[in-house]
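As promised in the previous annual report, we have extended the structural survey to additional targets. Below is the entry for Diacylglycerol O-acyltransferase.
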Amino acid sequence: MPDRLSALDASFLYLEDPVTPMHVGGVAVFRRPRSGFGYPELVSLVEQRLALVPRYRQRVVGVPGHLARPVWVDDRGFDINYHVRRSALPRPGSDEQLFDLVGRLLARPLDQSRPLWEMYLVEGLAGGHVALVTKTHQALVDGVRTIDFGQVILDAAPHAPQEAGEEPWLPRREPGAARLLVDAVADTVRRPAELVENGRAALADALAATQRVTGVVEALVSAIGIAARPAPPGPLNATVGRARLFAVARARLSDLRDVRALHGGTVNDVILTVIAGALRSWLLSRGEQVTSSTVVRALVPLAVRDEVADGTVPGMLGNQVTPQLVDLPVGEPNPFVRLHHVSHELRAHNDSVRSVAASALLRVGGFAPPTLHSLGARAAASFSQRIYNLVITNVPGPQIPLYAGTARMTEMFPVMPLNKHQALAIGVTSYDGGVYFGLTGDRTAMSDVDLLARMLEESVEELLTTVRA
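The corresponding structure token record, generated without further manual editing, is:
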């Protein structure tokens, strides 16, 4: 029997439209080795690793009459060159040109008739660098059966891509309409309530698939510190269009650790304080009214352990990402008072026995941040958009160099999706001594997202004033 999508996975397909594509992404920059690392080497590496993530050669097939949720089936026409693509900038390509391209690539929905991922090798960057831009649908990565491809393509040591294994991939036969209907009836007999829910989907009531999830998650609100009241008004609450802008900011992990050592809290607290400071400057630059009580509410997905799990690393990945609502004190002019406010808001989670420390996340095999950012986006998408202004995901990464084949990764920026009424999303990843912010903005509502990115770096400098005194 084919593997059926979960209710949550199916909801991401039902809710997708041209304005809000439901995929996450990443931008990894690599130093091209003297031996070269180009498109043929990348295709060879991807082919070599596909066996580790079988879902990446499967596509979604609907059930006739919507009698059950869609199923995953092997794509008998799988074409590696469709999914791994090549692009180039006019040499020497700048950061601005690269990130403008990223915004355009990420704005395009994935083709739901094919496996739900794409990868672009971007050549022509200054200094002999290349970039890898990835797009992965939120229905694909659940952290248990399927992880993000970025977690399996990178290694701790350089190595030349090998030829694909001797045994070729043999796709299983796709079930016909009759088989899909028989399986759907069997599932309905086991779970009769699903017949009504799937009928709603057939009537284009796509929200029905997610309302169950949203209701469950919203029930957590009283337990995570903020009542279910509407998000504060402001320019971040905007109906988004199809076009996107992408901008980045950089910091040194050692600097943020120095701030934490002097003022207390966690590195995550410091990062949220940096974002709060930048948002304050950005609001003032727009002429917005900012008072001492002004806040911006962020939904910050945080990793937790399963209460019934044994606390092992695999147990930390299995959809165990809990949404935490944090009121960022953008009205507070003193950066260190802002830090104390943020630390106080997050203390309940940091003290919880279910919270997962950064050191524990770093033990996850491979480069876990892409998978954890995907889980964070899934958590945010199933949470009511009425009660937060933006999504912030922050995932610690390994502090050693990683390689795709023989190419060393120098930077990695998360690319988070936008929901219908949020004009900004921020992903943060630390890697090899650096901290990398990726800002996704609606092209109309956040036309100055590059200004906010510069303000993030200025906010870091503001916090470092006492450290360097």
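Confidence is low (pLDDT under 50) at residues 195-225, 305-319, 353-365. The longest strand covers residues 84-93. These points will be discussed at the next consortium meeting with the crystallography subgroup.
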